[in-house]
Specification:
By secondary structure, this protein is α+β, with helices and mostly antiparallel strands. It contains eight helices and ten strands. The chain has two domains: 148 residues, DD-peptidase/beta-lactamase superfamily (Beta-lactamase, 3-Layer(aba) Sandwich), CATH 3.40.710.10; 109 residues, no CATH class. The strands form four sheets. Strands 7-8-9-10 form a four-stranded antiparallel sheet, with helices on both faces. It is globular and about 60 Å long. The two termini are 35 Å apart.
């Protein structure tokens, strides 16, 4: 990992080095914090390399042991793409992902360019008895959350993954690379869903799916793929309630098209209520 970096390095807290595979599966072992993830305006954005060097979280476990979502790890992976390709990350995505997939209404630039103004969804929140527009946040960790897109563009993205890297007459990814992204790369237990490269696994109504959600202040989105069924679903909400609504929509979709009898809930073990009292509280 450190051979790709300049000006800072990841400390050798553990004998095992962190690899890109660890970053892509959120198993690098970094702690997670939200401090300094946003700035008041785009003029205050720091270069990625500087932010990574001055906001490095502790390595709290050896890589490959546990998966724990890491915004820092995602930004670090983006920085390595910049270092290896010689292109700013937002330009790399534009040239190698957005243009080939005809995602002409997608950007990672901040502030969002004026030409995208007609597509920007406004978010509203309830404050007391009034409804107010949510303030626009500027992501310092923009490679981990500043992508702005439309449902039509995201449909192209899903089609490419459902077709193992193909879109139209082009091949965005090699077939083996696309399959590797979707293959389980890590799980805490063979009986549980795991994670691929960038996709989380889930099982709903007996169907295997790949998914990733997105949450920013005032907005929630969800992408779900059913590769075996050649189906994808994408939804975005401009409301804080979208975090719950997207999951309810997904369950309703699966109940409608892939109905299944709910699994019986296991009976509580003897003494469960007494043990629950011992750990009840606010953490």
């Amino acid at each position: 990992m450190n051979r790709y970096l300049e000006g800072f390095h990841i400390p050798a807290t553990f004998p095992e080095p962190i690899t890109l595979a660890h970053l892509m599966t959120h198993t690098a072992g970094f702690e997670e914090h939200m401090a300094n993830n946003f700035v008041p305006s785009a003029s205050e954005l720091q270069p990625i390399g500087h932010w990574l060097a001055t906001n490095m979280p502790r390595r709290v476990r050896a890589p490959g042991q546990l998966t724990s979502y890491s915004n820092y790890g995602t930004v670090l992976a983006a920085h390595i793409v910049e270092r290896v390709s010689g292109e700013p990350f937002e330009r790399y995505l534009e040239h190698h992902v957005f243009v080939p997939l005809e995602m002409g209404r997608t950007t990672m630039e901040q502030p969002i360019p004026a030409r995208f103004a007609p597509d920007i969804a406004r978010s509203f929140v309830t404050v007391g008895d009034t409804v107010q527009e949510s303030p626009s946040d500027v992501f310092q960790i923009w490679p981990a959350g500043a992508s702005s897109s439309t449902a039509t563009d995201m449909a192209n993205f899903m089609i490419a993954h459902l077709q193992e890297g193909r879109f139209g007459t082009g091949q965005l990814l090699g077939t083996e690379a696309a399959r590797e992204m979707q293959r389980q790369q890590f799980t805490h237990d063979p009986r549980l869903p795991g994670i691929g490269y960038g996709f989380f696994e889930a099982k709903t109504n007996g169907q295997h799916s790949l998914w990733h959600g997105g949450d920013t202040p005032g907005y929630s989105a969800l992408l779900q793929l059913l590769p075996e069924q050649n189906i994808g679903l994408y939804v975005a909400y401009s409301s804080p309630a979208g975090g719950r609504a997207r999951l309810e929509l997904w369950q309703a979709f699966m109940d409608r098209y892939f109905p299944a009898e709910p699994a019986p809930l296991p009976a509580p073990q003897p003494g469960a209520d007494e043990r629950a009292v011992q750990v009840a509280g606010t953490y």
